[in-house]
Backbone:
């Protein structure tokens, strides 16, 4: 992987035990994230797509060190984030921040939004007294809010405004990497575009990198440089955005694309592929290729042999079609 | 110093902790030196006062818009407002009443069994001049507007002093119980895992414990005193609060603003005191209001069965005495009973009103 990558994941795994408490037997293990490796470069946006329950959000939390992995490493600027302690950990927290999905619940209802944004500065002892107030004001203006909004409470804002406050909070410590977990999926369509444009502008101004988690391919197409497709805890395809959208390699990507609305009405480039059945339980994934029961291109080796990651024209794909 | 204050989650918590530690230190020191600078109940008042001022009054003041909002919503419930006024009246009665009434302990046999003003009963008294019992019409008198008991003690004075006892027991024991319950509940929810398991199983055991029996047993062993009764009720009454607060905090813990605070590197103490506790304050206030009447009743019941503090005229004790003279002087039992009834009702109405006001599901 490139040497100038900001964040590099190496075989990251997160398994949750089911049961196994004091009075309950261990029933099984949910493989939420099951061996994920990729890298994000400086100033890059990596889009992470997948159905609900495929482990996207868990991956996001791992990157923020809100959860501890079962196995694997995550290197931020070459340092394993799960080994950081004390001041180094604080430094990491300053540099990696999160934008949340639900603006309703991502702000403390008992705090003014200004206090919520200022809390970041308070925790890191970054600016004190009047300076802190000025920094909060600067952040508010930067995300397109007004000075007089600072002393209001979250319930006085619309969803889009709250999301702007959430972005201001994430920017407070001048981070390098932002993990955005479905940042626009709870917003109205018109507001979505505003927030996405804001995020793009900020990226240009501040040289931010994004790990952009979404299930909406249209959104991913708008913001991402590269796209990673996740299925049942695993990355099944990873390539540059243009390539993914013009020529998907993995049948799952193909199916996702065919389900999305075409960019222009009446122009559908691929036949509609309907995914049969449900997403299998991550507690008990199918043998062989985990996608084979729903795959429209499954053939002989799929139910038995686990496919390996292959490089095709510099793109990564995990499928027997390309093996 | 500054970093310590910010570690504790801000100036308010640092002040609270400092004052509480100071109180504890003074208490320990005077116990160790064998002095009594302050009676034990004064410590309770100070303790509760610090908590109420910093966590009750201050947020209400600094966040006036929210206060006005909740007051508007509470005001819509007329019964709750009536309950609130009755409680205010009761507090005034307990605080300034004793300056205007006679001594509740002054025995005056010639004036025994006087009915309340406006009532007249026929009482058989021994007439010295006639040398025999004669039936005599006895009207109520202005000196004793609520009548007297069988030892000639003024009912009004006894009820006023009883109001003080009931409010003391209700507020102090509830304060102690709710404080313990809130701290245990939030800690349990935030820590999770085996800490949560251990604390909640302990709560279950405490819940199944017959606390009234324990109270009777302790009073039997150590003798009845108001302080002891308050402490025992406080130390056993926290279980419901702990469970409620835990369940509230559990749902808050996974909310995104808590994740955001953790992603910013907030310490557990900061998350608990700045984010979790303020957000569970409304259910805490509601459960405190709703558990006050139960505790007042418990003290009265204890006094009624004769295990109350013998040095104070609590409503339960007057009720107990009145029950023995029910056929000759009904008012001795009825008056404290009616007061008790309305007090319990007032707290319940207020609690219900606050619960509706704080419930976001009824938000319009």
Residues:
């Amino acid at each position: 992987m490139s040497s100038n990558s900001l964040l590099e994941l190496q075989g990251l795994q997160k398994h949750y035990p089911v049961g196994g408490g004091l009075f309950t037997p261990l029933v099984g293990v949910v493989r939420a994230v099951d061996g994920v490796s990729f890298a994000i470069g400086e100033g890059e946006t990596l889009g992470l797509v997948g159905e609900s329950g495929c482990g996207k959000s868990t991956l996001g939390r791992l990157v923020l060190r809100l959860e501890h992995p079962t196995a694997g490493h995550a290197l931020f600027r070459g340092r394993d984030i799960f080994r950081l302690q004390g001041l180094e950990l604080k430094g990491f927290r300053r540099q990696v921040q999160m934008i949340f999905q639900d603006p309703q619940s991502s702000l403390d209802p008992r705090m003014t939004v200004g206090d919520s944004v200022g809390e970041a500065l308070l925790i890191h002892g970054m600016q004190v007294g009047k300076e802190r107030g000025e920094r909060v004001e600067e952040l508010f203006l930067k995300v397109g809010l007004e000075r007089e909004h600072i002393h209001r409470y979250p319930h006085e804002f619309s969803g889009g405004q709250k999301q702007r406050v959430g972005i201001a909070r994430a920017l407070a410590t001048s981070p390098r990497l932002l993990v955005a977990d479905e940042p626009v999926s709870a917003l109205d369509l018109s507001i979505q575009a505003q927030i996405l444009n804001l995020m793009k502008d900020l990226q240009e101004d501040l040289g931010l990198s994004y790990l952009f988690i979404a299930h909406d391919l249209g959104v991913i197409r708008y913001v991402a440089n590269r796209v990673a497709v996740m299925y049942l805890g695993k990355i099944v395809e990873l390539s540059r955005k243009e390539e993914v959208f013009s020529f998907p390699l993995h049948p799952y990507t193909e199916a996702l694309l065919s389900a999305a609305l075409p960019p222009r009405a009446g122009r559908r480039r691929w036949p509609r592929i309907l995914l049969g059945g449900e997403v299998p339980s991550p507690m008990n994934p199918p043998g062989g290729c985990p996608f084979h029961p729903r795959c429209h291109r499954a053939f002989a080796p799929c139910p038995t042999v686990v496919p390996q990651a292959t490089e095709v024209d510099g793109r990564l794909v995990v499928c027997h079609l390309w093996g | 110093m500054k970093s310590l204050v910010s570690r504790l989650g801000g100036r308010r918590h640092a002040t609270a902790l400092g004052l509480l530690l100071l109180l504890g230190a003074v208490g320990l020191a005077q116990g160790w030196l064998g002095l009594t600078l302050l009676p034990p109940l004064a410590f309770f008042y100070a303790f509760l006062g610090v908590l109420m001022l910093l966590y009750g009054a201050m947020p209400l003041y600094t966040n006036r818009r929210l206060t006005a909002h909740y007051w508007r919503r509470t005001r819509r419930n007329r019964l709750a407002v009536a309950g609130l006024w009755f409680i205010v009246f009761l507090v005034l009665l307990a605080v300034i009443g004793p300056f205007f009434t006679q001594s509740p302990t002054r025995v005056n046999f010639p004036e025994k069994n006087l009915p309340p003003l406006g009532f007249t009963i026929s009482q058989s008294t021994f007439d010295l001049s006639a040398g025999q019992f004669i039936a005599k019409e006895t009207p109520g008198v202005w000196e004793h507007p609520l009548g007297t008991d069988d030892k000639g003690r003024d009912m009004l004075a006894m009820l006023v002093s009883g109001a003080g006892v009931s409010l003391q027991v209700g507020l102090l024991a509830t304060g102690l119980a709710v404080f313990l319950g809130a701290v245990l509940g939030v800690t349990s929810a935030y820590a999770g895992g085996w800490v949560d398991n251990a604390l909640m199983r302990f709560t279950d055991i405490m819940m199944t414990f017959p606390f009234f029996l324990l109270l009777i047993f302790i009073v039997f062993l150590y003798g009845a005193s108001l302080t002891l009764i308050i402490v025992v009720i406080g130390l056993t009454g926290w279980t419901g609060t702990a469970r409620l607060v835990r369940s509230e905090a559990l749902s808050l813990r996974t909310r995104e603003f808590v994740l955001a605070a953790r992603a910013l590197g907030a310490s557990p103490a900061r998350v608990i005191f700045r984010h979790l506790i303020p957000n569970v304050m409304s259910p805490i206030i509601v459960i405190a209001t709703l558990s006050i009447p139960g505790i007042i009743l418990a003290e009265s019941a204890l006094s009624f069965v004769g295990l109350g503090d013998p040095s104070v005229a609590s409503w339960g004790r007057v009720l107990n005495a009145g029950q023995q003279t029910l056929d000759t002087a009904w008012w001795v039992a009825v008056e404290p009973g009616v007061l008790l009834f309305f007090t319990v009702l007032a707290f319940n109405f207020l609690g219900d009103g606050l619960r509706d006001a704080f419930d976001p599901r009824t938000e319009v």
